[in-house]
Amino acid sequence: MTDKNRLVGLYRLLVLIRRFEERASELRLAGFIPGFLHPSIGQEAVAVGVCAALGPADAITSTHRGHGHMLARGADPKRMYAELYARRDGYNRAKGGSLHMIDTELGFLGANGIVGAGIPLATGAALQLKRRGDGAVAVSFFGDGATNEGAFHESLNLASLWKLPAVYVCENNLYGEFTRQDRHQTVKDVAVRAASYDLPGVIADGNDVLEVQRVTAEAVARARAGEGPTLIEAKTYRHRGHYEGDMGAYRPPEEVEEWLARDPIILFGQRLVEEHGVAQEQLDEVAADVERELEEAAAFADASPHPAPDEALEDVYAETYEGAALR
Amino acid sequence: MKTLTYAAAIREALAEELERDEQVFLIGEDIGESGGVFGVTKGLFERFGAERVLDTPISEEAIVGAGVGASLLGGRPVVEIMFSDFAALAMDMIANQAAKTHYMTGGRLTAPLTIRLVTGTAGATAAQHSQSLEAWFAHTPGLKCAVPATPGDAKALLKTAIRDPDPVCFFEHKLLYNRKGEVDDEAEPLPLGQSRVAREGTDVTVVAYLKTLHDALEAAEQLETEGLSLEVLDPRTLVPFDRDGLRASLEKTGRLLIAHEAPLRGGFGAEIAAIAAEEMWDALRAPVVRVCGTNTPMPYAPELEGFVIPDAARIAAAARSLVGEKVA
Question: Which residues on A lie below 8 Å from B73 (Cβ)?
Answer without folding.
Answer: 59, 109, 125, 128-129, 132
